[in-house]
Structure formats: structure tokens, C-alpha cells
Amino acid sequence: MIIYPAALVLSAAATATPLTHARIGWQTFTRDLAAADVTVSTEDADFPRDAPLRPDTAEAWAPTALPATWTVDLGGLQDIDYVGVVGGIGSAGCALEVHTSTGDLLGSPPEQVWDLFAAGIAPADDAPLLFLDDAVSARYVRLTLTGGALMPKVAVVYAGAVLAMQRAIYGGHSPIPLSRNTVLSNALSKGGQFLGQGFRRHGVSGGMAYRYLTAAWYRSDFDPFVKAARQYPAFFGWRPETFPLECVYGWVTENIVPQNQGVRDFMSVSFGVQGIGHE
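Above: the chain sequence. Below: its structure as C-alpha cells.
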């Protein structure tokens, strides 16, 4: 799910990259931080607080009581216009809210000033969450989890500057969240009767293809993502304004190699994406 304020649609529409253009959340200031940079309200011993700093989804942080908070210190002021979250939040029946802070203190006794980055959302499932807004300067990012009959889990948190694609895609594109990649396990009786079927593994897979990217933009804006994508997953929202429910946390399946189109200075590029599944 992609969450953004209505004002962002208007401000983005006045730029060359409206919210009908894909957003890719790959750059994050949370990467390579340490457990000491994370503060939590409570922590299950089997679900450590620093798990969301890593890109893998096999482990996660989980609180032992609600409401719960997870706060990361980025080490200094950073410009942030997106926060990406992967975890078991919807299945736990919880709502999630995101705040940022510069670290300034007010009041007596002094308390940290928190600004709302993303209003509370209670997702219906455990699909990746991509929060978008205008850039803010922040040192701290805080997730607040409320409600729910079960303890939620947070596996990945990204916070940084989102990549807004120079061109839009639509015709001929197969939306990755709808392109399911499932390995099934079925059981048949000795006489060939169907006894049941379940998932051995499930996820999503597809691709993104672009034409008429200017060579200068490719080199300055897109190529940093290409280099990072060799090692790290990213959040992909292919058309946030039109399809805000379609977000993927995934990784590219091969090296991304551009081609000169032979028309002025334009380049084309296509790449495959494989993403995590959810229920």
C-alpha cells in the first residue's frame, strides 16, 4: 500500500514527475546503523530491535505490549521524503503512524518535538507499506503501533530520498503485485483423488521497462539505484496516484543494462523484479 497526503498529489503534479510516475524507495539512512541507534517501548527476546535495519525479512522486531514505538536515530539531520515498512501489521489488526523529529526539545521538563509524517493507517493485510510526502529534515524516525489483538512484527524500515522515475509506464506493463509467482504442494490419493493443496512458496515477479530516459538523468538519478540494486532490495510503487494499493518490496533479478536508442540522447532500460509474498 502507498500512503500519501492529498497535498502531495497537487505539488507533484506541478513537477516533471507527478504521482502517475513510479516511485522507487532504495536509498535509506537506516542501513548499517547499530542496535544502539534504535529505541523501543518493549522488545520480545526473540524479535530484536535492530532487525528492521537489515534488508532481509526473515527476522523482525516485535513488542510485548501495545501501544508500541520503534525509534531510530539517523545520527544527524537528513532529508527524508519516504518511509518504507515491511512486517506483520495488518494480520495483527494494528494501525501504524510515522513521525519524524529534528531532536529539538520544548517544554519543562523538555520533551522531544515530533512531527507527523504519515497519518495512521490500519492496513487490511501485510503488503509492504510505502509512505510518501514532501521532504522533511529529520534526525529521528518513529513508528507507533496501536490496537490489535496480536503483537505486530516489523521486519524492514527504510527512510530516505525516493527515486521518482522520469517517465510513466502503463500500456504493456504487467503490475508486479498482480503477477503472482507460486509454487504449490498438492496431495492426491492413491486413486488419483484430490486431497488438498497448499503453498510451498509464494511471491510476486515481473518487470519494468522504460524508453526515452535522457542520458543525463539516467547517469545522475537512475544509475545510483542500478548500482545499489545489485545488493539491496527496494520498495516499488509503479503508479502511486492511480493504484495506491500496489506496492512491492523486492529485488532485481539480473544486472540492469541500458541501451542507447539512437534518438537524440535517449536511453531505454528494462529489468525484472521479484518480490515477497503476503496474505
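The chain has two domains: 28-161, 176-276.
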